[in-house]
Amino acid sequence: LRQLPEPQRPEQSRRSLLEGPGSVTSLPNGLTLEVPITIDSGSNADFVGMQFIKQHRIALLPATLPLNVVTVDGRKLLGGQVVQQTPPMLLKIGNHREVISFNVTQLSDTPIVLGMSWLDRHSPSLAWYQRQLTFGSSYCAQHCIQIGQEEEGQEEGQQLHLGMVQAVPHKYKGFLEVFCEKEADQLPPHRPYDC
């Protein structure tokens, strides 16, 4: 019998199997940043690294609810509670877009981590071999913009506006026109009592 060569094994990586390119757009100023994103089913929340925030001078808000973060081995995070979050940002992964706020903490290897709450909400399908996500859940169909499913002829600004509408709290949905940049750049119609 002829001895077969031992099959080559792929290198083991310390990085998450679910890491890939994406981008975030700061909605207040429209700045778009290409960024690697890690999806971590061991994380209960969505995080952005403080170094990324400082590097790109992204304004922060107080966290809605402060978070106590515990590491994999049960230790509390060195920085203490997570007490800040980003304003709503437009997150793009492939053809998927959504508006999301991130909790701010110290991250070592990656600028953005999407956790189990994100996975539960979007329930993406994963082709493991290709490391490719597909967003086909009913949540995504109702709440997320997917490029290619939009009407042809829409401009980038219009698509961004659709994402921004999702960030408007429900109690203000009746006033959506004040959140539209096109409307905000125009004067109101002339009225009889105007000079």
Report the biggest beta sheet as strand number plus sense, adding barrel if it closes: 8 strands, mixed
Percent of residues in helices: 10-25%
Total number of helices: 5
Uncertain ranges: 8-17, 150-166
Shape: globular
Rg, alpha carbons: 21 Å
- Spatial strand order of the main sheet: 8-3-9-2-1-6-7-12
Structural class: alpha+beta
Name the beta content range.
Answer: 25-35%
CATH homolog superfamily of one domain: Acid Proteases
CATH fold label of one domain: Cathepsin D, subunit A, domain 1
Cα separation of the termini? 101 Å
Q: Please write the string of helix (H) and strand (E) elements.
A: EEEHEEEEEEHEEHEHH
User: How many beta-strand runs?
Assistant: 12
Q: Can you give keywords for this protein?
A:
195 residues; 12 strands; Cathepsin D, subunit A, domain 1; 28% strand; alpha+beta; 8-stranded mixed beta sheet
How would you characterize the overall build of this protein?
The protein is an alpha+beta fold and 195 residues long. It has a domain at 19-152: Cathepsin D, subunit A, domain 1 (Beta Barrel). The chain has helices at 50-56, 116-122, 138-143, 156-167, 181-184, and strands at residues 19-26, 32-39, 47-49, 61-67, 82-85, 89-93, 96-100, 103-105, 112-114, 125-127, 132-134, 145-146. The strands form three sheets. The protein has an eight-stranded mixed β-sheet. Strand 6 and strand 7 form a beta hairpin. The longest helix has 12 residues, at 156-167. Residues 8-17 and 150-166 have low confidence and may be disordered.
